[in-house]
Structure formats: structure tokens, C-alpha cells
Hints:
Elements: H1 6-25, E1 37-48, E2 52-65, E3 70-81, E4 89-101, E5 107-120, H2 126-129, E6 130-145, E7 148-159, E8 164-176
Antiparallel strand pairs: 1-2, 1-8, 2-3, 3-4, 4-5, 5-6, 6-7, 7-8
Amino acid sequence: xxxxxxxxxxxxxxSFGLVxxxxxxxxxxxxxxxxPAVGLGAGFTSxxxxxxxxxxxxxxxxxxxxxxxxxxxxxxxxxxYDPGYDASQASLYPELSLQLQIPSSIVNPYLGAGAxxxxxxxxxxxxxxxxxxxxAAVGVRAWIVNRWGAQIEAxxxxxxxxxxxxxxxxxxxxxxxxxxx
Length: 181
């Protein structure tokens, strides 16, 4: 005779409850994920490069949904910082990200990771100024009215992997390029 222990029954009950709760929180329209969207944001970045400090940062992104759960996001960030030995430096950070999100019709929390480049936009040749970057991000996109939404994100960026870093906290607006289904 086959018997199931009480702990396994409780565990299965919790698993089933989690699946039901998740399904209940996802509206029927979640499968028809949002269209591509463009976003502009601003905030502050705390950096540890040749010098340390906190400065204003701006960014722009393009959200390209690959599935209801996965978003490909090319983007770029810009900030000026004080390297500690020279006049301030302007830096551009073109990046590519993959974001795993929990889809819904209004609020989409996500985790992301990706890579890109750090480019100094002043002085020397581009080849001398290009450094590889890696990043991790956590955030929320909320679709507020019609095609308009807002985004809040925290992004940790490693520059010239592990030689320098920045930590961005940004907020901004998003606009969907096509009306949602």
C-alpha cells in the first residue's frame, strides 16, 4: 500500500496554493504582453571609479518583449563624474539587458542582467576609452493610463569588470509604441 506522509501532503498543498494564487494575480490579458516601449529616466548614481561620489544620471531604453516573461532591453545611460585627478569626465554606458518579469496588465516587477560598454566621451580615442561593463537590475514598470507608464529601477554596474562600479537609482516614464491588445 502506498502512503504519503503528512509533510508531503502539506508541501503539495502549499505548492498548489502558490500556483492558484499566481494564476489569480495574473489577469487574462497578461498573455497578450505589452508592445515595445521607449523609456526616459533620471536619478542618481553613486560611483567608485578613479574617484568616488554621487551625481545625476539620465538614461533611455527600448523595451522589446520576447515573451510575457522575458524582455530584451537595449539602453544607454549618461553621467559626468569627478575622477579626482582632472576635470570632470563625461561617460556614456550603452548596454544590453535581459529582464525576467512577472507579467500583469498594470504592474510588472522584474530582475535583469546584461553587459555593455563604458565610453569616455571626452579626449582620447574611442578604443582607449572603451571598457566592458556587467550589470544587474531590479525594478518595476507600471502601466498607468493608455500607453503611458512609469518605471523605478536600481542597477548595479561593474565597470572594466570589478575595477570600478556605479549604483544607479532611477525613475522615469515609458510609452508603448502600439496599443495593448
